[in-house]
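Sequence in, structure out.
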Amino acid sequence: MKAILVMASDKVADLAGYYLRPLGFDLIRYKNPVKAMDNIDEIDPEAVVFSAEDFPRHWKPFVQMIRMYRSKERCVFLLLKGDHFAFDEAAKAVFLGVNGVIHENLRERAELSRFQQVIKRYLLVDDQRMGERFVPSLYDRLDFTFAHPDTYVIVTGKIESISSRGISFKADSPDTLTDLHPGRDIPDCSLRVGSAIRSFPCRLSRAGAICALEFSGASEEDRELISAYLASYAERSEAS
């Protein structure tokens, strides 16, 4: 699948691309909205992510052109807004066929969750990393710790995203993990999901400041528990 990013900010483009690629998208970035419009038919994208903050005068004709030949199910149009996006502009976006209006600060967990959920609601996507991934809020009871397999030091940190298959995790002290490499088994891991605490082995699939671990030793019961909690999280997020 192909997605067009129309935005001037490299920072926002990098964030959007980071979360789109794992869903199976090839990305084409434009800093000039007119040039992007000229190439729509040739590219025939399944998704467009457009910055209303960068190009406030161009998003309306852009989405109108898209909707002339492509339905909301065929081409998802996500509009990224800034802090001063007027209410009447949001109403116009809905009327013109925008699939979702989301704040451009995708580092905010609620906005990131909406960004991903809008795409998954309309398109059959392939999350190549971890299946249905969710970004916990401050109010979710999700915690993860593990023991370093060599030093047995307890590693604590923050869950960046989670699915029934694995986790993206930012350690409080990343220096303690510099000797670990992808493919390494981590026997002693503990995950709190709501009021339950589950322990099972994991496997490191990505090293770095934000590492990724597969729930390689999780039982089917463990996965069902995680999936049920994340499903309830998704419902809460969409209702907010």
